[in-house]
Hints:
The chain is mainly α. The protein contains 18 helices and no strands.
Amino acid sequence: MTGPPGGRGAWLAWSIGCTVYVLAVVHRTSLGVAGLDATERFGIGASALSTFSILQVLVYAAMQIPVGLLVDRFGPRRVLLLGVLLMSLGQLAFALSTSFGPALGSRAVLGCGDAMTFISVLRVAARWFPAAQNPLIAQLTGLAGMGGNLVTTVVLAGALHREGWTFSFGVIALAGIAVFALVALLLREAPAAPPGRAGETVRRLSVRRQIRDSWQEPGTRLGMWVHFTTAFPAAAFGLLWGLPYLVEGQGMTRGAAGGLLTLLVFSNMLFGVLFGRLVSRTPASRMPITCAVVAATGLCWAVVLAWPGGHPPLWLLVVLLLVMGSNGPGSLVGLDYARAYNPAERMGTASGIANMGGFIGAMLTLLGIGVLLDALSDGAGYTAETYRWAFCWQFLPLAVGAAMILRLRRAVRRTHPQA
Length: 419
């Protein structure tokens, strides 16, 4: 067998891995619909509230290289099992927490487990599917993850209102038992006769060399900055600041705001299918897709924030959310850069480096917006004007990321003239 076979066995393995990723997205985005509840439960302000998501994202980003190394050396199945265990423990502790300190620690544990899922699923797919299908499978993985986001915005938001904090988060934590059993009993991380030579190569490489070689490849760094620049606007909006912005800044009810946030999910799904097909058929489309996502997102935010009075019309908010739906699929183009320019034996490490980008960007954005909200507030709450100036912070990482993409694109062309 010269390559991954595809077929029903491949789709079964990928589906089991995706179940873990869907659960991870539910865990990751759960605070996005509970931000207002968290401020009341723990008695905190915007800066402290943003610390929850910042720490979770910081742990996620910091774990990407270690997770990539673990996947390369021990296989994705073991890493997925560990990830499910950590996510469940972290979410259960969060459900039971009544003070800020323990709740913060539980989000760190959750972020650690979350960090182990996506790269592992991509590695399972890389072993089971032909290389030409990898961009489409990566986008389908992201699309499946949006199902988890939908569970958060529709199911969890309603459960929090009806059943309360401990019950809602506790049920999510206990769902990990079923997912753990599914992976342990049914997941085969590779076809029956995987190439033996690649495994031997992985074991011979030192950790230092694996990281060094992955980082020195310009395609890896380009992938990281593509992921950074395209992912963070929607990530920061969906993880934390979207619901408060729509409710406090735009005067919507929580139900209306939650309904509007579902547009982000459905748009993400549509763009995922579109980008996956484009990149699978035409790898040269990666850079045009990246530039279009960055430019459209920046333009939409500029129009929304410049709108007189800080209250843009509903149709403009709809357009913003639809455009931000391209952010997640656009960020997966960055992972495809890392995959395309690295050999199989360091694919997990390179993917981990690239996957850090968007979460570093999200962390900086979450922090910047939270600090600015508190700094600009007069202590009486956050107004539309306060949110308008705080959200302007996004243009700084957007500009830095765009500049780095253009610089590293030239470096990739010098190193790989055929690219």
